[in-house]
Design goal:
By secondary structure, the chain is α/β, with parallel strands linked by helices. Strands 1-3-2-4-5-6-7 form a seven-stranded mixed sheet, sandwiched between helices. The longest helix has 29 residues. The two termini are 35 Å apart.
Length: 260
């Protein structure tokens, strides 16, 4: 099992490098709307990670951070920006807390799964997390289908999502839940590189309060919160996310003394 790389555009090899890490039951192709808005002046590479849609979860016996590290190691150089969504954002957060140099000069975490310290891991939390997980499978299917979702019978679309949930099964949910619980113990104070936490009021997983705690816990963290952003804002609000990524490109290049 390997991590494949997909180049999303034709670009000067020396242009700023932006790498993308997708979420659970998602696909590297979900970055295309964002890539289109970032334009041809940046080299854009999407990682095809083992937690892609349709996987069998055999990868779960190895740390998500290790999988992401192996993908980043295959890039020609350290990314100017690492853009990581949801479960991919959790893998990136683990690397950041370990001060992994491969994890980008700057980082955009889009709706990562984060649990602030101090809260108890209760059965009520387990039940709420499972409900949210099911909702994300449904929402993720609609987001990947784009405008086609509106042309499909609602019952058929729901049946497709239910089949995906049955395939994912307890192994998929428990993998996510364990990662979520572990975030409360992350050493955020070790993260001193620039990190943009992109979150939204319409995301049932990363609440605005949790996003605020996450960003504030990292010396280099900064929160970008919009009430209309949901868990798949990188697809549904691609231009707004592209603007934030472009800001990080300029910041990364400024620290190197080159244009971005």
């Amino acid at each position: 099992m390997t991590v494949a790389l997909h180049v999303l555009n034709e670009c000067d090899p020396d242009a700023p490098l932006v790498a993308f890490a997708h979420g659970l039951e998602d696909t590297w192709q979900s970055w295309r709307p964002l890539a289109e808005r970032l334009g041809p002046r940046r080299r854009l590479v999407a990682l095809d990670l083992p937690w892609r849609a349709g996987n069998d979860y055999r990868w779960r016996h190895r740390s998500p951070a290790d999988w992401l590290r192996s993908g980043l190691a295959a890039l020609p150089r350290t990314p100017d920006v690492l853009v990581a969504h949801s479960f991919g954002g959790n893998a990136a957060l683990q690397l950041l807390c370990a001060d992994e140099p491969l994890a980008g000069r700057t980082v955009a975490l889009i709706c990562p799964l984060y649990r602030p310290p101090g809260g108890a891991a209760t059965w009520a939390l387990f039940d709420r997390s499972r409900e949210t997980f099911v909702q994300h499978i449904h929402d993720g299917l609609r987001a990947r289908m784009g405008s086609r979702a509106a042309r499909i019978d609602a019952g058929l679309l729901a049946a497709m999502a239910d089949l995906a949930i049955e395939r994912v099964g307890p192994a998929g949910f428990l993998t996510v839940f364990e990662q979520y619980l572990a975030t409360a113990d992350l050493a955020l104070e070790a993260v001193d590189r620039p990190v943009a936490v992109l979150a939204g009021g319409a995301d049932p997983t990363l609440t605005p309060k949790a996003a605020e705690v996450l960003a504030a816990g990292m010396p280099g963290g900064r929160l970008h919160l919009r009430d209309d952003y949901d868990h798949f804002c990188h697809v549904r609000h691609a231009q707004g996310i592209a603007d934030r990524v472009a800001d990080l490109v300029r910041l990364a290049r400024a620290t190197m003394g080159t244009a971005g």
